[in-house]
Amino acid sequence: MKANVADLVSGMLAGSQSSLAKLITLMESYSSDVPKIMEMISPHLEKAYCVGITGAAGVGKSTLASALATTARDKGLSVGIVAADPSSALHGGAVLGDRVRMQQHFLDSQVFIRSMATHGSQGGLPRCIGNVTKLLDAFGKDIIIVETIGVGQTETNITEVADTIVLVLSPEFGDSIQFMKAGLIEIADVIVVNKADHGYAENLVSELKTLLSLSPNSAKHGTAVLTTQAINNVGIEELYQELENRRRILKAARQPH
User: Fold this and answer.
1) Full DSSP string of 141-160
2) Residue 218 pLDDT more than 90?
3) Taking the C-alpha atoms of 234, 235, 240 and 241 in order, what is their torsion angle to the nearest 10 degrees?
């Protein structure tokens, strides 16, 4: 193991954002040091609560993630955000669109934001996303928000990294039945109808509740349907409380009996 990798891990555990950023870069490049890094951070894991936000492009996922981060910070919690971006056709890196939309958090040292290119991986997330969330966990983040790329109906890989999955829909895009066919509604713990001031929002909520009543999986883990106007901060506190309730249940389940 390279000495500087050990130094990076020590620096990250001591609170260095620069060390964290460099370790994430090693994860993205699939460095040969990755297994050793994961071994070193293993005693510091399973403290953070990871929320996955998925849904089609344009429904307001980034705005919702930013609003949730603001609410968490108002309650004194630290936040990590990992936003999957399409790989640039020119250099293969993330196009950083989500970081632009979350610029209100740039001066807050308790919010760490990283955009990551998918490099063509399927499922709306980079392949190294699980290791990156573990780094943020070891770094001491209370809440980690993972936002998928927004490619639409194939983004079920989020189930492998998130404790709670939020599916964001918009009345503007209609047809929730397509999401049911794709399995996204089946994996969602919370469904958010964003842009709820749209005229079709009430109908979409009603349609979703009907679909969920017919789904045994949704009934099993009590899928919630909420409405928001993320851009106006409407419904965000209610969404946060729903997520917090699920975090408490998860934490209790993890406690040794």
Assistant:
1) -SEEEEE-----TT--GGGG
2) no
3) 140
Cα separation of 77 and 69, whole Å?
9
Residue ranges of the domains in the chain?
1-44, 46-254
Burial class (CB in 10 A: 0-12, 13-18, 19+), 110: middle
* CA separation for the pair 86, 93 (Å, rounded): 8
CB 111 within 8 A of CB 77: no
| Cα radius of gyration rounded to whole Å, the chain | 18
The one-letter amino acid code at 220 reads K
Q: How far apart are CA 229 and CA 231, in angstroms?
A: 6
Please, are residues 94 and 115 in contact by the beta-carbon 8 Å criterion? yes
Residue-level pLDDT at 191: 93
The residue count of the chain comes to 257
Place of tokens 């509604």: 185
- Which pLDDT tens digit goes with each residue over 101-144? 566 777 788 999 998 877 655 555 778 899 999 999 999 999 99
The band of 68, judged by pLDDT with boundaries at 50, 70 and 90, is: very high
Q: What is the mean pLDDT of residues 233-239?
A: 96
Name the architecture of domain 46-254.
3-Layer(aba) Sandwich (3.40)
Contacts of 76 (CB under 8 A, 6+ apart): none
The predicted structure's pLDDT at residue 176: 54
Among 64, 103, 97, 70, smallest CA distance to 83 is for 97
